[in-house]
Amino acid sequence: MDDVVSSIEGRTAAEIAGSVRALLERGALQPGDSLPPVRALAERLGVNRNTAVAAYGLLSRSGLVVAGGRAGTRIAHPEPVAQEGFSHADPDPSRRLRDVGAGNPDPAWIPDPSAYLGALAGRPVLYGEPVIDPDLEADALAWMRADAAPAELRLTLTSGAVDAVERLLAQALTRDDAIALEDPCWLANIHTVRLAGYRAVPVPVDAEGMTVDGLRAALAQGVRAVICTPRAQNPTGHGLSDTRAAQLRAVLADHPYVLVIEDDHFSLLSQQPFRSIVGPDHRRWALVRSVSKFLGPDMCLAVTASDPHTAERLALRLSSGTTWVSHLLQRLAHAILADPNAQDLISRAGAHYAARNAAFAELLSAHDISTRVADGLSVWVPVEAPAPLVAAELRRRGWLVRTGDEFYLDSPAEPHLRLTVHDLTDAESVTLVTDLAASIAAAR
């Protein structure tokens, strides 16, 4: 190992960091290996100590090393991040488990796209043409203007909400910039922030949404962006109340140039009104609405309304010659959403999800498990025992669940499970609740 460490070379911070990176890529350095102390490295290479510090700083910001204080600097272990859409599989492949942790919509409530494909015929779209299909643009503009407080807005299309958020952050932030995230938070946002090297500042969420004190504290730490879910917050299902939204707008009024991203992912399915935290005079903002929850995750399309400055910078990251959203996909989405039958199905789908979640919450209350009936595809269930232990007990009983721990930036204040139960039969729901109560008792 000493021979490997002695192979580090370079005269500048970039050269030294590049040397360590090369050793890691060749397998000469492994996760957990120690790097020499800054002073020792500087003396051996004949460089200023600050140069060695800067080199380690570059490696740390790239996520390649971890500084452990007196324990020294070590090569980082890759940290897996939980992904949305599926739960961790059971280690025993012989067991068949019912997955109630995936957070997916029910295919039975998604309009069948095959009925609309015949209407998509038309001339080919060529380079240099408008990025947004005119029919979709007209309807999307009306949809977004109905809820956007600032008078002036522009539309941008991306390949889904995750793509929109990632590009919005990239046009406004640089590595190490601070960003306010709800805590608990949507897994994709956690993943995006970690991969990009931003610094996440957690803002607690309660039954009325993002907390005022939490946002105020995050702004005091210099966050340059805020991501807020106005309704059907994932994983809790909570939405902003009128009072809370007004309070958050008042706090943000003193920070008009902080980018505020509102992710209204549940939009057409939500049983709650849209309440914005963006005031009429806020200067940097974006409202993102994807179609994934009501047209299916494979319909990779999201509409973003934003202030003109943000839209112009976002357009620089969406070259119309390489990364526009397919016009065939745009026309398909518009054809479905313009059909009154599809609109009716989507409306009934939202009511179905709400009714099934409420029925499940009623079953929980009979077992003295109290959860607030909220919005969204899942139910946020307090378990009053270590969530991983409860999940393990449920796995023994044939259920694959998602623990609340995965959604937190900080340590969870209370243990929870996020359960997707809308496609269970009544009998299956009763069985799950019974098994959950027994698992909580066993985990205690």
TrEMBL record:
Signal peptide from the UniProt entry: none
Top-level division of the source organism's lineage: Bacteria
Family: In the C-terminal section; belongs to the class-I pyridoxal-phosphate-dependent aminotransferase family.
One Gene Ontology term of the molecular function aspect: pyridoxal phosphate binding
Domain HTH gntR-type residues, every copy: 10-78
Organism (species): Microbacterium stercoris
CDD domains membership: AAT_like, WHTH_GntR
Pfam families given in the database record: Aminotran_1_2, GntR
Swiss-Prot/TrEMBL keywords: Aminotransferase, DNA-binding, Pyridoxal phosphate, Transcription, Transcription regulation, Transferase
InterPro entries noted in UniProt: Aminotransferase_I/II_large, HTH_trans_reg/aminotransferase, PyrdxlP-dep_Trfase, PyrdxlP-dep_Trfase_major, Tscrpt_reg_HTH_GntR, WH-like_DNA-bd_sf, WH_DNA-bd_sf
Protein's UniProt name: Aminotransferase class I/II-fold pyridoxal phosphate-dependent enzyme
